[in-house]
């Protein structure tokens, strides 16, 4: 009985071989190594200013991805996904095969083609938090929500 108890403590205690430490995941933020020349990143990598684009420091994994953003101020903006081959100085984004972008006017562009458009009465406004879910398969689908209200399903 004592041998069994010792074995159990040896496996579960601090000196056990079964302990697997958890890795802390890095914070996802805007990547200053992948941004346009006229872009400024502020607020510890959480806000973009200027003209151009910036990639995040984390890739999209598997077949489904999620991200959200807040419209800090009214103006001309675009948000979406892109490969590392995208020209981050070319605005508006969505003009090539390397980016899929929702623009401030509610249009969604990829390869210089309008792929979809939000209804005029549902455009994101200053202060809105927009949630974007991407589902990848033979045809990419993007689902957008503002405050859990579905805006676009394509």
Automatic annotation (TrEMBL):
InterPro entries: B30.2/SPRY_sf (IPR043136), ConA-like_dom_sf (IPR013320), SPRYD7 (IPR035766)
Name of the protein in question: SPRY domain containing 7
Superkingdom classification of source: Eukaryota
Gene3D superfamilies the UniProt entry points to: 2.60.120.920
Signal sequence, start to end: none
Source species of the chain: Hucho hucho (huchen)
């Amino acid at each position: 009985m004592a041998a069994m108890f010792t074995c159990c403590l040896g496996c579960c205690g601090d000196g056990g071989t079964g302990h697997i430490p958890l890795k802390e995941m890095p914070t996802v933020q805007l990547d200053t190594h992948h941004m346009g020349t006229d872009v400024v990143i502020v607020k510890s990598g959480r806000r973009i200013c200027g003209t151009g684009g910036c990639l995040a420091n984390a890739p999209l994994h598997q077949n489904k991805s999620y991200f959200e953003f807040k419209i800090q101020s009214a103006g001309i903006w675009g948000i979406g996904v892109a490969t590392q081959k995208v020209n981050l100085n070319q605005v508006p984004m969505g003009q090539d095969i390397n980016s899929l972008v929702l623009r401030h006017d509610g249009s969604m562009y990829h390869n210089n083609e309008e792929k979809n458009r939000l209804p005029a009465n549902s455009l994101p406004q200053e202060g809105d938090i927009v949630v974007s879910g991407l589902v990848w398969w033979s045809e990419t689908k993007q689902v957008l929500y503002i405050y859990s209200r579905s805006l676009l399903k394509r």
